[in-house]
Amino acid sequence: MDIETYANLYDLFVGGTNVMILRKMLEDHFTFPRSTVQARQQTMDFIFERLSLYTLETKKQKFKARTDDGTAIEGTNVIGVIPGKNRGEPENGVIVIGAHYDSHENSAGVDDNGSGIVALLEVCRILSPKMNKFNNTIIFVAFDLEKRGILGSLAFVNQYLIPTEISRKRANFIGAYILDMVLNFDPSVRSQTVPFDVGTAIPDAMAYLKEGNYKGDFLSVWSRRVIDWDLWYPFQKAWMKEDEFSEHKLVIIDPPIPRAPVLLSNWRYRSFLRGDHAAFWSHKHFAFKDSLRAVLLTDTGSWRGYMRVCFHEFCDDRTHITTDNLEFLRHVVDSLSAAVAFLGE
User: Fold this and answer.
1) pLDDT over 90 at 215, yes or no
2) Is the distance from CB of 34 to CB of 101 less than 8 angstroms?
3) What percent of the chain clears pLDDT 70, i.e. is strictly above it?
4) What is the DSSP letter of 270?
5) Number of C-alpha atoms within 13 angstroms, CB side, residue 230?
6) Close Cβ partners of 41 (under 8 Å, ≥ 6 residues apart)
7) Is the separation of the CB atoms in 324 and 247 below 8 Å?
8) What is the pLDDT of residues 83-128, one digit of tens each?
9) Domain boundaries, the chain
10) 288, CA 20 to 30 Å: which among 8, 85, 153, 186?
11) What is the SS3 assignment for 26?
12) Cα–Cα distance measured from residue 155 to residue 53, given in angstroms and rounded to the nearest whole number
C-alpha cells in the first residue's frame, strides 16, 4: 500500500487508532529483519515519508559511532517535529516520543521493535490535526542502531536534542516516552518472568505480579523513582480512562536509581539501563550536566510469553500479529496520544 493510500485510510480515524491500521502497517513494513544497511534504509525511508505527512519539520540525522568492539559504523535517525507556539521562547517545553527501528539480524522484529515504531507513527498521526493548539514542542524520533549499543539514541540526545533544542532554542525539557516492544499481551498464568536482580529492586511490583499469578497482562512503565513520575502520572491517567480495555493492566517499575548514577548504582541497576531510555538518564554531553527525564513503555520483552524463546530470533514474526495483541497495542497508542496531548498544552 503506497503512502497516499495510507494517508486516506488514517484520516478516517482522527480521534484514535484502529486495529486495522496497526495490523496493516506491521504486516507491510515490519515483518522482515532490519539489520543490514539496505533493510534499514528501506524502513527509514518509510518512516521519513510518514513523519513528513504529519509534522512540520522532518529531518534525517546522520551520525557516526563506534560499537563496543571499536567498529566504526554509520547510522541515521529520523526526526519529526510538531513545533509548539512557544518554540524559541524561554517558556517552551519539549516532549520526545522515541523508538528504535532496527532489529536483530536473526529476527523479523515484529514486537522488537516494529510495534514501537508503529505506535510512534500512530501517535504522530493522531496528534497532527491538533498541532496548532500545542504550546510545547513535540519531537518524534526513530532511532537507528539500538541493537549495536543504543548508538542512535545517544547520538540524538548528545548531538541534536541538547545542543539544538534545549540549548540553542532555550527549551525546557519535559521528558521522553520511549516505546520498545509493546505488542505482547499474554494473560495466561505464569507467562511473566522477572530476573532476580530486577525483582529485588522493585518489591512492590513483584508482590503485585505474585498476587496476579505472574500473568503477562500488563504494560510496564520503567521510571526512576520520583525523578520521572511527571511522565508517569499523565500516562497512568490516560490508560485508566480506557475502561473498554480494563483487562490490560499497568505496572510501574520504578527502582530508586539516583539522578546522577555512580559506578555502584550502574552495576546494581544494570538491567534497568539497557535500552534507549538510558541515553536520556545517563547522557554524555559535556556542557549539559542535568539528567533528562524519560520513561520506557514496554511489554517486558524477553521476560514474557513467546518472547522468552523468540527474543532476537526468527519467531518474533507476523504470527503474533493477533487481534488480542493489536488491541493491547491500540491501548498503548491511544493512552500515549492523550498523555502527550496533555503535556503539549
Assistant:
1) yes
2) yes
3) 93
4) G
5) 10
6) none
7) no
8) 999 998 889 999 999 999 999 999 999 999 999 999 999 999 999 9
9) 19-344
10) 85
11) helix
12) 24
Q: Give 59's strand partners.
A: 79
Find out whether 275 and 99 touch, Cβ atoms under 8 Å. no
Number of helices followed by number of strands (H, E) in the chain:
12, 8
C-alpha cell at 63: 551520525
Q: Give the pairing type, strands 218-222 and 172-179.
A: unpaired
Q: Any bridge partners for residue 58, and if so which?
A: 80
What is the C-alpha to C-alpha distance for residues 179 and 118, in angstroms, rounded to an integer? 10
Helix (H, G, I), strand (E, B), or coil: what is residue 294? strand
**What's the first-to-final CA gap in the chain, in angstroms?**
34
**Residue written as grid cell 521562547:** 89
Helix ranges, 141-222 (H): 151-155, 196-201, 203-211
SS3 109: coil
Class in CATH terms, 19-344: alpha beta
The answer for residues whose C-beta is within 8 angstroms of residue 193's C-beta and 6 or more apart is: 214, 303, 304, 308
Burial of residue 176 (CB within 10 Å: 0-12, 13-18, 19+) is buried
* 179, containing H or E segment: strand 172-179
Question: Which residues sit opposite 149 in a β-bridge?
Answer: none
Q: What are all long-range contacts of 15-20, with beta carbons under 8 Å and residues at least 24 apart?
A: 15/126, 16/126, 16/330, 16/333, 16/334, 16/337, 17/122, 17/126, 17/330, 17/333, 17/334, 17/337, 18/330, 19/323, 19/326, 19/327, 19/330
Q: Are 253 and 222 in contact (CB under 8 A)?
A: yes
15 confidence band (pLDDT: 50, 70, 90): low
Model confidence at 264, in pLDDT bands (50, 70, 90)? low
Cell digits of residue 53 = 505527512
* Pairing outcome for strands 249-253 and 137-143: unpaired
Q: What angle do CA 132, 141, 46 make, to 5 degrees?
A: 95
pLDDT tens per residue across span 157-213: 999 999 999 988 788 999 999 999 999 999 999 999 998 888 899 999 999 999 999
Considering only CA atoms, which of 259, 333, 343, 243 is closest in space to residue 297?
A: 333
**Cβ–Cβ under 8 Å, residues 284 and 163:** no
- What is the rounded distance in angstroms from the CA atom of residue 259 to the CA atom of residue 227? 7
